[in-house]
Amino acid sequence: MKFQPFVALLNFLFLLLPLHKFPQVVADLNSDKQALLDFAAAVPHARKLNWNATTPVCTSWLGITCNLNGTGVTFISLPGIGLSGPIPANTIGNLNALRVLSLRFNNLNGNLPSDIPSIPSLRCLFLQHNNFSSVFPTSLSHRLSVLDFSYNSFTGTIPTTVQNLTRLTILNLQNNSISGAIPNLNLPSLKASNFSYNNLNGSIPNILERFPSSSFIGNPLLCGSPLKLCSTVSSSPSPSPSYFPSPPTVSQIRHATSKNKLGAGAIIAIVIGGLAFLFLLLVVILIRCLKRTDSGGSCMLKKKISVGGKSEKPNDFGSGVQEAEKNRLFFFEGCSYNFDLEDLLKASAEVLGKGSYGTTYKAALEEGTQVVVKRLKEVAVGKREFEQQMEVLERVGRHPNVMPLRAYYYSKDEKLLVYNYMPAGSLFSLLHGMLISTPLSNLH
Fold first, then answer.
1. pTM (2 d.p.)
2. Which helix (H) or strand (E) holds 36?
3. How far is residue 82's CA from residue 107's CA, in Å, rounded to a whole number?
4. Over the chain, what is the mean pLDDT?
5. Mean per-residue pLDDT for 288-295?
6. 290 has pLDDT over 70
7. Is residue 314 within a helix (H) or strand (E), and if so which, with residue range?
8. Which of these, 34, 36, 61, lies nearest to 49 by C-alpha position?
9. Cβ(84)–Cβ(43) below 8 Å
10. What strands lie across the sheet with 221-223, from one edge to the other?
11. CA of 212: how far to CAs of 75, 158, 217, 231, in Å?
C-alpha cells in the first residue's frame, strides 16, 4: 500500500509528458517561421519570395527545407535572387536546427550578425560573392565543414578559433581585405583552402604548404613555400680596420671576365628560346581557331562531340560570360527553379538541336533538375531591347499551348534562354521522326 502514492505520481508524469512535448515542437517551427518572415521583411529582394504566414513552411516556401519530422528549418538556399542590404540580427541566427545556409551571389552588405556563424548545428555556410564588410567572426560553430567567405570585403585577422574547426574540409577566404598572419591551421579534414588576394603577411605555416601557390597569391607580404622564400637578415661581423684585401691578380680578372661573358650568353639564349616558344604557341592557337571557325564552332566554346547518338557536351555554356556578371540570371515570376548561373554552367549538357539562331542543349544540374538552354548566336542587340523582347516572349509563353520562357541571361558576348525540359520530345520529332513507322492516327 505504501507504493501507491509513488505509482500515482509516475502515472501523472507520464500523462503530462506528451502534452508538454507537442506544444514545444509546434513552438519551435513557429519561431523558425517568424524568424524567416522577419528576415524577408527587413531584407529587400529583387525576386519575389512566396513566404507568408498562411502557407506551410516546410512544403511550399521557396529555398526552405525542414527536417524529417517537420519540427525545424535545416536548409536555406537563396542564391542569386537579388537580396540586398544588411542582415538583421535575431532572424536567421534564431534557427537553432539550421545546417546549411547558402546566400551566395547576392548584394548583401554591412556586418554579418555574429549569431549566424555561431549556430551550433551549422555545417555549411556559403556567403561568397556579396559585399559583407564586417570583421572576421570569432564565434564559429564547431560542426562547420564548409566556410566560404570569398569575394566579399571582410576585414580583421583570421581568428585562432578557426583552429578548433576539426571537421572543416573547405575554407575559402579569397578576395577580401583580411590582414595579419595565417594561423597554424592543423585541421586533419581540410582538403581545400584559398587565402589569395587579401592583405595577409608573414610566413605560410608548414601544414599548409601542400596547397598550390594559387591559394596564396595576391598577398605581397606573404612568403614561404609554395611562394617565394622568406628573406632572413643575418648580421655579419664588421671588417677589422687592420685588414686590407690584396688586389686581384691578372688571372683572377680574366677568369671573372669569362664568367660574366658566359652569363650574358646564357641570358640571350633564354630570351631567344622564350620568344620562339611564344611564337609557336600563338601559331598553334591560331590554327586551332581557324579550324573551329571552319567547322561552325567558336574558339570561345570548347566542345566534346561524339557521333552515333552520343551527347555533345560543352565545357561551359557561357564562354562569353564575364566573371562579374555570373550572378545575373533573371528568373520570371512564377518560376520554381532555385539555381544560379554558376550551377547552370557546371551542368552536364546534351545537344538537342541546332537552328539558325543558335544551339539548344538539355542541361542536367547537380541537384537533379533538368532544363533546356538555348544559346543564341549572332544576335546583336542592346541590353534594353533584349530585355523588352524577353518580356514579350514571357507574355506569349503564358498561352497554354506555348512553352513558357523561365529565365534568361544577357551579356555583350553571351545570351542564354532557359525553358522547361519536356521528356516526351518535341512536336517536330513527333511529326517527322515518327511518320515513317507510326501512322498519323496514333498521334492523336
1. 0.52
2. helix 4-42
3. 6
4. 78
5. 65
6. yes
7. strand 313-314
8. 61
9. yes
10. 179-180, 199-203, 221-223
11. 32, 20, 10, 21
Residue type, position 77, single letter: S
Q: Which grid coordinates are listed for 416?
A: 542564354
Three-class secondary structure of residue 34 per DSSP: helix
The Cα-based distances of 217 to 7, 128, 197 in angstroms read 71, 19, 6
Q: Are 320 and 412 in contact (CB under 8 A)?
A: yes
- Burial group, residue 239, by CB count within 10 angstroms (0-12, 13-18, 19+): exposed
Conformation bin of residue 45: beta by default, left when phi > 0, alpha when psi is -120 to 50: beta
Q: Assign residue 324 a region: left if phi > 0, alpha if psi is -120 to 50, beta otherwise?
A: alpha
SS3 string, 46-110, reads: CCCCCCCCCCCHHHHCCCEEECCCCCCEEEEECCCCCEEECCCCCCHHHCCCCCEEECCCCEEEE
The helix/strand count (H/E) of the chain reads as 6, 21
- All three cell numbers of 329, joined, read 540570371
SS3 state of residue 342? helix
**Residues 299-314: tens digit of each pLDDT:** 333 333 233 333 444 4
In the chain, the N- to C-terminal Cα span, in Å, equals 83
Statement: residue 30 has pLDDT above 50 = yes
Q: Which helix (H) or strand (E) holds 30?
A: helix 4-42
Q: Please report how many Cα atoms fall inside a 13 Å half-sphere around the Cα of residue 35, on the Cβ side.
A: 23
Distance CA 37, CA 58 (A): 14
β-partners of residue 200 are 180
Question: For residue 39, what are the contacts with CB-CB under 8 A and spacing of at least 6?
Answer: 87, 88, 91, 92
